[in-house]
Amino acid sequence: MTGKHDPCGEGAGSPASPRLWSVDEHLADVLFAAAPLPPIELRLLDAQGCRLAEDVRAGADLPPFDNSSMDGYALRTADTVRATEQYPSVLTVVGDIAAGADELPKVGPGQAARIMTGGPVPPGAEAVAPVEWTDGGTGTGQAADTMGGDEGVPGDEVRVLRPVAEGAFIRRRGSDVTAGDTVLEAGAVLGPTQLGLLAAIGRATVRVRPRPRVVVLSTGSELVQPGEEAGPGRIHDSNSFTLTAAAIAAGAVAYRVGGVPDDAATLRAVLEDQLGRADLIVTSGGVSVGAYDVVKEVFADYAGVDFRRLRMQPGKPQGYGRIGGERGVPLLALPGNPVSAYISFELFVRPVIRTMLGAPDVHRPVVRAATTAALRSPAGRRQFLRGRYRPADGAVSPVGGEGSHLVGALAQADCLITVPEDTTALPAGSTVDVVLLTD
Questions:
Q1: SS3 104
Q2: Which helix (H) or strand (E) holds 260?
Q3: Is 429 left (phi over 0), alpha (psi -120 to 50) or beta?
Q4: Considering just the CA atoms, what is the radius of gyration of the chain in Å?
Q5: What are phi and psi of 282, to 5 degrees?
Q6: Is the pLDDT of residue 7 over 50?
Q7: Separation of alpha carbons 412 and 375, rounded Å
């Protein structure tokens, strides 16, 4: 995932004053080498959540034959023209037809065949009278709404209590799908109903772009796992849970790796162990200028991994590249503060995942809204404030403060309020860009 920009080239700045990259420049670099994953053939249930890589056409009609939509009697409509409850049409029952039947009785004048829902319509029949419109073969008046027992056996009679129109309660062959129809187009996301349609037309497998496998790991010797006691100087690892859940929500298959201590050998071993199952690796922590930022130390061993500072708040330090050369596994290294990590994921990682999926909607939607409070922002930084958006009146309210550790406020937010780099203050009522975080 080598970028278009050379961090050591013109304009990179001196070591004492490294260049600050814009959000848009970094995003362009991150997406430069991102591409949809190659299509593969998957069994239907394994393809859930994937996007079709080709149009799917039906090879046969659906339904494949005329069949009954009700339990009832298949008959000729002419035999019921004058039928009433007082003077019913009395028809001879010539056979039973269950769903899946392959030997069908022929229905002639004055005859009917008892038929179950889904049963093929027999030759000679023009309609189906629901059992509720008959006496069910009992000879005692209107039948119950189900058919059962020994009523209606061949040779018995059924009384039809009202006229039945031609084609009534028959599901015609091809009325749903006609052979040759394009039933699903390339790019369609395969959910339960789409998979059901594929099964209905007889497809056992389908060609899709697979969901990218994303490995998420957080670094820091201070991290302990939820459920364990956090002693002095220790905190619970929340980033790996937040980012793994975010990757799943973006459409990926995600694997969470627990907190990795600040030890270069351990981190290197974990990375090598995870490479075999990853289409993308996302780390959090260890990308700033601290003495124990081992992520930079370890990734220095891999060509093509760059670290830089962005003109944004929060999320200034970022890293990206590939592990294992030009054809290796893409890597995105995010800052360790929880809010910084999540916002960085939304701005940079999610578009990569969506690109790998072949999705047309790579970026979150952005709307314009009026802020309900005055906003402040540092000069030269694009500020991303957490907020709550009200679509009813097009207003947005900040949630919590600017701190990159405020996970309580982050959990209440459904959008990011964007303050441009050249703006340091906005009065209440100002119109701002709002990045919507809800799917």
A1: coil
A2: strand 253-260
A3: left
A4: 33
A5: -125, 125
A6: no
A7: 18
How do beta strands 17-18 and 13-14 pair?
antiparallel
Pairwise CA distance, residues 247 & 255, whole Å: 9
Task: Count other C-beta atoms under 10 Å from residue 153's C-beta.
Answer: 12
Query: Treating both helix axes as pointing N-terminal to C-terminal, what angle do 239-250 and 350-357 enclose, rounded to 10 degrees?
Result: 30
What would the pLDDT profile of 321-340 be if each residue is shown by its tens digit?
Answer: 888 756 789 999 999 999 99
> What are the distances in angstroms from CA 21 to CA 288, 313, 318, 345, 380?
15, 12, 10, 17, 11
3-state secondary structure 128-157: EEEHHHECCCCCCCCCCCCCCCCCCCCCCE
Say what angle helices 350-357 and 23-32 make with each other, to 10 degrees. 30
Token pair 């670290």 is at which residue?
A: 307
Residues 328 and 256: beta-carbon distance below 8 Å: no
pLDDT tens digits, 151-180 = 444 458 999 999 999 999 999 999 999 999
Band (pLDDT 50/70/90 cuts) for residue 46 is very high
**Contact call for residues 292 and 222 (beta carbons, < 8 A):** no
**Do residues 308 and 261 make contact, with C-beta atoms less than 8 angstroms apart?**
no
The helix/strand/coil state of 355 is helix
Q: What would the pLDDT profile of 290-300 be if each residue is shown by its tens digit? A: 555 677 888 87
pLDDT in tens, 76-106: 999 999 999 999 999 999 999 999 998 999 9
